[in-house]
Amino acid sequence: MSEDNTSSATERRPDWAAFIIAVFLFAVAGVMAWDALHLKTIAQYDRIGPATAPQMVAFGLFCLGIWTAFEAWRGDFPERDRQEVAPVIWIVAGLAGQMLLLRVAGFSIATGILFALTARGFGKRKLWISLPFGIVLSFVVWAIFSQLLQLTLPAGPLEHLFF
Fold first, then answer.
1. Is the pTM above the cut of 0.85?
2. What does the pLDDT average to over 22-46?
3. Which long-range contacts (CB under 8 A, 24 or more apart) does 55-59 make?
């Protein structure tokens, strides 16, 4: 029985990815606390003001950072699966494409490209099907928001062709 305890103790190593997450939590908590300290109070007679909620969230994030660092040091996080990079690249490329094309090509084409590249990232191999489907679906969304709800979305050549 003592052999099992020593073998499990030797397998535990610090989880460096969790340490990075803990540092990120500390950084976000610090920025929120600093920002909350610089909020102006409206009335001095009450203890609860506009800075109370950000201070509580910063305190919660700081506690989560401590907990994450402690668990990372103990190595108690479950082992993660190997991350596949290709789907992430497809999705990020779709987001970058949408941001770059939104003003030039309009909402329908830019969001249709985002739809197609995200579908490709999730395993849909036929871009020649998902690209037109994404553009048509995005055009319907644009028409509902722009024409029926009177909200402003970037219009491109496809939108100007119909409206």
1. no
2. 84
3. 57/32, 58/29, 58/30, 58/32, 58/33, 59/29, 59/33
How many CB atoms are closer than 10 A to CB 90?
17
**The pLDDT of residue 74:** 85
pLDDT digits (tens, 9 = 90+) for 126-155: 989 999 999 999 999 999 999 899 888 888
The answer to whether position 88 is within a domain reads yes
- Choose one of 77, 93, 108: the last residue of a domain: 77
Place of tokens 């849909």: 124
Domain span at 26: 15-77
In a domain, 49, yes or no: yes
Q: How many domains in the chain?
A: 2
Tokens (6 digits) for 41: 């109070």
Q: How high does pLDDT run on average in the chain? A: 86
Single-letter code of the amino acid located at 113:
I
